[in-house]
Amino acid sequence: MTIANVSVSSVSGSSSSSINASLTSALTTTPATTTSAASAASEPLTQSRVTVPISSYGFSSFPVPSETAIPGVFPVTDPNDPPAVGAPVVPDFEAAWATAYGKAEALLANFTLHEKINITTGVGWENGLCVGNVGAIRDFPGLCLEDSPLGVRDADFVTAFPAGINSATTWNRSLMRRRGLFMGREHVSKGVNIALGPMMNLGRNAAGGRNWEGFGADPFLSGETAYETVLGLQGAGVQACAKHFINNEQEHYRTLESSNVDDRTQHELYAHPFLKAVMAGVTSVMCSYNLINGTYACENDKMINDILKREFGFQGFVMSDWGATESTISAITGLDMTMAGDITLGSHTTFFGQNLTAYVENGTIPESRIDDMATRIIASWYFLHQDTPTYPTPNFNAFLPSDPTTNAHIDAQDSHYRLVREMGAASTVLLKNVRGALPLTGRERGLFMAGSDAGPADIGPNKFVDQGGQSGVLAMGWGSGTANFTYLISPYEAIQHRARKHRTSISWTFNDFDLARAGNMAISQTVCLVFINSDSGEDYIVVDGNEGDRKNLTAWHGGDDLVLAVASQNNNTVVIVHSVGPLILERWIDHPNVTGVLWAGLPGTEAGNALVDVLYGDWNPSGRLPYTIAKNAGDYPTMVVQGEIEGETPGQAGGGDVVLDIEYSERLEIDYRWFDAKNITPRFEFGFGLSYTTFEYSNLSIVKVPRVGDADADEDDGEEDDEARWDAGKATRIAEGSSTALWLHRPAYNVTFEVTNTGDVYGGDIPQIYIHHPPSAGEPPSILRGFTNVEVGAGESAVVSILLSRYDLSIWDVEQQGWRRGDGGEGGGGIGLTVGVSSREGRLYGVVPV
Ligand code: BGC
Q: The Fibronectin type III-like domain covers which part of the protein (predicted)?
């Protein structure tokens, strides 16, 4: 059944004429029923559909390095020792991968087929200590896979870090890296081998339920945050997992929707953060629940074999999302590991295990592919040196947290709260500040707080499983992307503590709905702080009618009414927002009595303290919006598709034979790109954020970076030089690793300018670079391609340098399947460039020369 503008199509892969006879018969044969790990099952299997086109791309077990490391430009890098943040280098992990592959091949040399397949098959839901587990085999101790992208899930004595969206909101690479590093260390202390993050879907829909786990609605910002997070996590010794590959942009029917995305959009937008994760040496990628162009992500030959493994040269392994494997033949289309192992969680059946063995034994799948799968998994383990005997084994039980025999209750927190507090402040965006409302001076006589979001949860911070409910301050969303709070500082606690110092008189109400009382209490206070929020999460939990995705973009618990009730009685009303994503603020944003707005996102365990630092000016706000806040929900280019399929329950894994088609027809124009292209005025644009001081920019210069060393191995082959070809407007040549080729990503242009702090206080600024391709390129008007953070004292100046690579100035040429200059190179007129303070406010303008 279809409703509204949703089309529904049958699930079927584009059939290929090259299907060979044995494969055809294997595809139509019901596989054996169970693995050795779960032999109890006599249940029938549910594999009834054939969705897999046969690979037209070869796979090689180990891509050949195409370039030579050059010290100072492409340093040979071990993942445990990544380059410093901001170093103008592209780390070269080839040697580390080669060593790891050598060790993996040696370890696996005597493994039987059955043993190798066991490495690729999770032990099944709730059959191990972690949320995903690979069993021990001979000298290999097995693997513990554990969520989440903001800390260690299902464990105690861990830190609840700021959510991914807050990491992006800092636009500060050092903080992003340190967050990754500290989360990585906590995973290692708990004995986790593979941390299931970062999550890097793009926030195509403002109401998408899991947007907060990720890094916002721009591919470049998301890619930079992903890059630093992976380098940080793996720097600590845990393997990272880039998820969810790909186009898992809404929760509603996530297992029954086909995201239909054209090749250019896929390359330039949705795949870009994954490319950056590969360049950071990520060892694993998780394929998503949805279909892409009619084929499930975990059996999507095009996405996994062609783009990820061939074009990006990804040398780690691909695991399924939990229950997202759809067939045994997925092994051929690139899937390396099935998680949690069973077909549906707890089914005691598997598409891998004995079924995969049978496919090898009957000649359908070559054993060399099994070797490749097992080698990729074991090599990743060696790549991170997890074979060292001191690497901790799992010391917590994700499913039985009170079991005394499996929980050691190790305190993993260290002093990570300091980073949480700093990042909480650095990710708070000052959206409005009039009549000197902020920062507070300490001279306030009366301060009133209104709203449940100001206060603590009624029975502690872990009242709801996986945070699937709301009580008190909102510091993370819900679902698998969560961690338990060891403690949670609410604004009420932190503000009281601070106010005592200033002898300020404090009052509060946590009741969101008693508007009359809130209004009365607001009368004659020096300042009123109104707290509102908005929550979302993963589809397996429904909160207040929100099935993962948000059902609207307005504040929860009538928050807008509370703001108006207070603002109607007090002319110094400051609104604080804890939200998973954009909200429509129109009912009160222009109210003359609303003098300030602080956008705090989801700051984690130090929520209240971080807010106090910004409120009182100990931290000068430097956060910038990682998405657009519109005036109307209808201004956004897309909405969550709310189609219903007869007989199907949203949120249940796969199984149906009809799916929702979701056309990504806005193509390159998501978020600010759409508002710019369609000339729609947003309320607050992407990249926007105020400070307690002001900055001026001057002296723009754009120069070509001279070439250092010979990064282009092709030169010696008598072939045309890659860099010169690109400069001449030709597309890159497709090859294994061609999109991650070091030469393409090396610094090519140096953009420098001066930033002067023209205000009265020290502050941090985030200069942003937007480029403008000529109309012939078919790009949105402005595209973010660079940013940095700079701290400057009052009255002082700093020279800022931002490097751009050839890749940064490229568009994806669909015909030639390569990256090329957007202006066509020589004679193309150059590419426009703006240095600005947001996507809409430019300060300096130039042209990138050829
Ligand atoms: C989520 C993943 C998560 C996995 C394991 C799935 O439902 O989509 O992000 O890592 O569960 O908990």
A: 765-839
Q: For the whole model, what pTM was predicted?
A: 0.93
Ligand 1 centroid from CA 469, angstroms: 19
Contacts of 215 (CB under 8 A, 6+ apart): 164, 165, 167, 168, 198, 200, 221, 222, 225, 226, 273, 626
Does the N-terminal peptide bond of residue 198 adopt cis geometry, omega within 30 degrees of 0?
yes
Rg (CA), the chain: 26
Q: Give the residue numbers annotated as catalytic, written as ranges.
A: 321
* CB contact at 8 A, 97 and 315: yes
Does residue 196 have its Cβ closer than 6 Å to ligand 1? yes
Which two structure tokens, joined as six digits, stand for 492? 């009420």
The confidence score (pLDDT) of residue 72 equals 65
Confidence of residue 712 (pLDDT cuts 50, 70, 90): low
Nearest-atom index, ligand 1, CA of 148: 10
Q: Per-residue pLDDT tens for 101-133?
A: 999 999 999 999 999 999 999 999 999 999 999
The bridge status of strand 284-287 relative to strand 239-245 is parallel
- Condensed to tens digits (0 to 9), the pLDDT of residues 42-80 reads 332 333 333 444 444 444 433 334 455 666 678 899 999
Does 480 contact ligand 1 (Cβ within 6 A)? yes
Token couple for 208: 């998408």
580: helix, coil or strand? coil
Strand, coil or helix: what is 801? strand
Q: Which of 87-96, 430-439, 712-721 has the highest mean pLDDT?
A: 430-439
The atom of ligand 1 lying closest to the CA of 540 is: 7
Sheet-wide strand order for 573-579: 429-433, 594-599, 573-579, 527-534, 446-450, 505-509
Report the alpha-carbon distance of residue 802 to residue 804 in Å, rounded: 7
Q: How far apart are the first and last CA of the chain?
A: 54
Tokens representing 443? Answer: 């001279």
| pLDDT, tens digit (0-9, with 9 covering 90-100), for 409-457 | 999 999 999 999 999 999 999 999 999 999 999 999 999 999 999 999 9
